[in-house]
Each structure stands twice: as C-alpha cells, then as structure tokens.
Amino acid sequence: MIDQCFPGVWPDDSGFGRKSTGVLPSDGVCHRLKGPGYLSSRDGDHLTMKKLAYVLLVLFTFFVVIRMAAPAMLEHRMNVVLPHAPYAITPEARALHASLFVADLHSDSLLWSRDLSRRSDRGQMDLPRLREGNVALQVFSATTKSPAGQNYASNTADSDRITLLAAVQGWPIKAWGSLMARAQYQLDKLHTLVAEPNNGLVLVRTSSEFARLLSAREQGEDVMGAMYLIEGAHPLEGKLENLDALQRRGLHFVGITHFFDNALAGSLHGQSGAGLTAFGRAVVTRAAELEMTVDIAHVSPAAVRDILALSNRPVILSHGGFKGVCDTDRNLSDALMVEVAQAGGLIGVGYWDGAVCDATPLGVVRSIRYGIDLLGLSHVALGSDYDGTVTTHFDTSELAVLTQTMLDEGFTEAEIRAVMGENVKRFLLDQLPD
Ligand SMILES: [Zn+2]
Q1: Which residues, 6+ apart, have CB-to-CB distance to 94 below 8 Å?
Q2: Which of 62, 244, 305, 378 has the CA that lies 20 to 30 A from 408?
C-alpha cells in the first residue's frame, strides 16, 4: 500500500528539516526527493523521531549544564562565609590553638557535590581547611529531607527539597526517592574519603579506634578523625533494622528529628510538639543497646524530656545555642538545657545567627560563656553546622579566631581546652563502644 502523501517537513542533511510544499507526483507514489516535495507518513514518523531526538538532546544539554553549574551556584548562595579581613591572631593564641584537641560536632558538608579532599572556595569546610583549623575530630552529618520554605516556627513533612538537590547533583537514582539510600550514599562518600590514604582521615566508631587516633596525633601524625551522624532518624523508614545496618557501617550519632515531625517524635520546628512515638522509643532503646549517642538537635521539648526519661545514656545537642542569649525558635529553654547537662549531655554551640543571634567570633564566644555559666564547663562544645545552609563569619580554617577571642575575653586555658574539644574527647571515651 502506498503511504499517503502530505505537505510537511522534508529532512535535509542537517537532520533538522525544512518546510516544503508541492503537488502529488503524477505516479501517485511518494518519492524521497531533495528539495520541495511530498512526504510519506513513514517519513513523517522519521521526522517525529528526529524532533524527539532534538528535544532530548536539548534536554540532555540543559541537564549537563545544570549538573555542572547549579551545585556551585547553590552552594555559593547557601553556605556563605561573610567577607572579612584576615583575623589577627597573636603568637600566643596561635601556639595555644596548635596545642589543642579540636572537635566539631556537626557539619553538613556531605550533602554537597564537592570533593572534600580538595580545598574549595565554596562552602565552609573541607579536609585541607579542617587541617588548617587544627581540627582533630569532625562529625559529618547526613541531611536526608528538608521541607520547602523551611523555617524555625512550623513545617510540615509534605515537601522535600533534597529530591531536586539529589537529582541536580547526580546522586544515584535510588537516593532521589529513598531517605535510607540518601543516608547510605552520604555514608559512602565518607567511606570514600577515609579509604584514600592521602586524606589522613580515619573513621571513629569504637573507643579503641578513638584511642588510636589520639595516640597517633600525640606522636605528631597528620591524621584526623571522622564520625557519622544522621540529622533526624526518618531515613530509618520506620524499620529498626535500618538503625543496625547504619551502625554496622559506622553510624554513631542518631538525630531523632529534623525540621518536621516524623515517625519518631515531634520536631522543635514541626506542628505537633509531640513526644516520642512508640517507634521513637524503640529507636532510642535500640540506640542505647548499640551504645550509640542520641542527638537532640531539632527535637521538640516534649520528646527531649521523653528521651532523658527513657535512657540513662547522655545525649548531645550537636548544633545550637542558648535561649538566654538568643531567644529564637531554634533554641531550647535554659531549664531544659540544664536537665540535658545534668544527665551528662553536651551542647555544641553553633556559629550562625539562628543559634547565637550574633555570629561574629565575639558573639559565638559570648554564647559559649553563657553556656559555661549555665551548665558548667564540662557540657559545652563546638557544633558549627558548617555547610548546613548557614552564613558564618569564619570557616573551619580560621578556628584560631575562637581561641584568640576566648583569650581576649579572659577565658582560662583550661576553659578553652575543654570547649574546643576536650569535653568531646572525654564524652566519647566514656560513651563509645569497645
Ligand atoms: Zn541542623
């Protein structure tokens, strides 16, 4: 059967076709002719395929451009170090800082598609900058879900910005949808960093691994420790066995909620204000059995009280501040912070506005002083929230500015050592499994 002829687009050699008109050939057969003519429907199919290929090519090119440019653009906008003149550090402060054990309880750097083994002009933290800041132990957090319009007052769990971020950054397709896959993927990234010997990074899961790190550093070895934290336990996807699976691969710190209420508890920034659910209680109990540490950052006051009542293991608040200095919805009441400290807890003071209200080095140090006065020296630590879509006045390479500012503010050497890392060291030597 002869295909019906119709005026249409005749493909030229460039493959993109040109409009043509003409008359039906006298033999009634559609001919493939260069130039104006009639096309068969088979030719039409061919053209449709070419058009489709063209559209796909445009989409692919668009995706490649987005894939290459968007992560850097996003990070430049979201993880900001405010421009500043270099901080003046006295030789005394520099020498003291170089002698410290420095630990930071929270950084979201694994969320971004940067090679953390290289120094970057993006974000606030990478391995070279950790070294420059003399950081001995860094807790790497995994953010796995973040609602649109995220705020400190009230959020629902209905939306999620990480899906788009995962796609744009070329995460494995499984991690576009599954929160557990997102936690696993970010843990994979940490394992990759640790596996490269030139990075001088070791994963700390047990007290013996931690002791090895400490003695290596004491012998002058250029090695840093890394620990893993999930920011909210929604990646468990309601399954207790997922906690065991992540723990076997190196998870130690278990955040309970992030910005929205989840299957474990109400969030500090959710809608219910609820305490622990049955699943939340099961996770906290299992975490204690596995000698893990619960992180109460972003957790509702009711759930914090439930956690303190349920487990006799001390908790951390990996990143935050004190309401008595900074009265935002991001911070828990001073009274509850005292309860956390009385149960042996540790508070990581952040470096961004929502936690300390004044994010200058002096502002951060004033929050630290307030915490020491409120809770006692043993309960205050650092919790930067670097690369957690925060704006800071210094990146991790510039941490000596905190030592300098504490000296300027009359802190004793013992106080500086405790806050900068010795409190975390003591906590982990007590709490890590053998
Ligand atoms: Zn956070």
Answers
A1: 400
A2: 378
